[in-house]
Design goal:
Elements lengths: L2 H28 L3 H33 L5 H22 L15 H29 L1
Length: 138
């Protein structure tokens, strides 16, 4: 076994263990019946379609638009930050209805998410401007 293969196995083991733990917890805590398993399968299938049909093409298009610009690292950082903020906020943004206990989700998450994205865009723009200014001086 080569060092690379061993490293890959060592890196894959925690991910496989976490996935197995998640499946075990799902089965143990929810005791799903056949309809729950079907709903989960449909949800996971939709996630794959959304990922491969929307997210991947959007990321590839943004990568083409960024090209070989000197600002590529700055723009990638801003886009990655915005994407992570969106992924973290998505469950709160798409939650159905209002909670039974209003103190559980007390904020307007659409406004908070929008503000976080605007702040990310402004910081990315400032850092890009500083990088351009430094490039002109050198």
């Amino acid at each position: 076994m080569t060092r690379t293969t061993l490293l890959r196995l060592l890196l894959a083991a925690p991910g496989l263990a976490a996935a197995g733990f998640g499946i075990q917890q799902f089965v143990e805590r929810t005791r799903p019946d056949l309809s729950d398993a079907w709903d989960l399968t449909v949800w996971l299938g939709g996630a794959v379609v959304l990922h491969d049909g929307l997210l991947v093409p959007a990321v590839l298009l943004l990568g083409l638009l960024i090209g070989r610009s000197r600002l590529r690292p700055v723009l990638r950082g801003g886009l990655l930050t915005g994407g992570c903020l969106t992924l973290l906020a998505l469950p709160l943004l798409l939650r159905p209805g209002s909670p039974k206990n209003p103190t559980v989700l007390p904020r307007d998450y659409w406004v908070s998410w929008s503000v976080a994205l605007v702040v990310t865009a402004v910081v990315t723009g400032v850092v890009a401007g500083v990088a351009l200014a430094r490039g002109r001086r050198n």
